[in-house]
Amino acid sequence: MKRKTLFIAFCILIHTSCWTLSSKTFIKSGESFVLGDNKHKGYTAKIKNVGSQIIEVYLLTENGAETTLGELAMNEKVKYNVPENCTIQFKNKSNKNEAGIKIRAVGDTNLSMGYE
Question: In 3D, which of 87, 107, 102, 77 has the Cα closest to residue 38?
C-alpha cells in the first residue's frame, strides 16, 4: 500500500511539474523581456521584481494591441492571467542598471521567451 501511495504521489508531481515554468531573468537597461510570443493556450504568470529597478508591464495581443498592466516596484509580486496567444512584456526603462524578475508560469508552459 505504501509503494502504491508513493507511486501515485510521484506521478502527480511529474504531471504537475510539466505545467509549471520557473525562471529568474535579468533585463539589461533599456531592453525588454517577452514571454509567450507564440501560439499557446492561456496561462497564469506570477512575477516578482527581484531587482532595484521599476519594471513596466504590458500585454500584447496577437493583432498588435498593447495594454499597460502597470509597474512592478522592487520586491513587488503580481499575478497576471495571460489569455491565449497573448504576450506579456517586461520593460526596464532604466538607462543605468539591470532589472531582475522571478517568473513562475502555470498552465500552458510551451512559451517562447526572449529579449527585445
Answer: 87
Query: Is 96 or 80 the better-scoring residue by pLDDT?
Result: 80
Between 2 and 66, the higher pLDDT residue: 66
Side chain identity at 94, as an amino acid letter?
Answer: S
Residue 63 has pLDDT above 60, yes or no: yes
Domain that holds residue 73: 2-115
- Assign residue 101 the CATH number of its domain: 2.60.120.10
Amino acid 28 reads K
- Give the strand pairing for 55-60 and 20-27: unpaired
Alpha-carbon distance of 89 to 100, in angstroms, equals 13
Enter the pTM of the model. 0.81
Query: What DSSP character marks residue 95?
Result: S
Task: State the total domains in the chain.
Answer: 1
What are phi and psi for residue 11, nearest 5 degrees? -60, -40
The amino acid at 113: M
Q: By three-state DSSP, how is residue 20 classified? A: strand
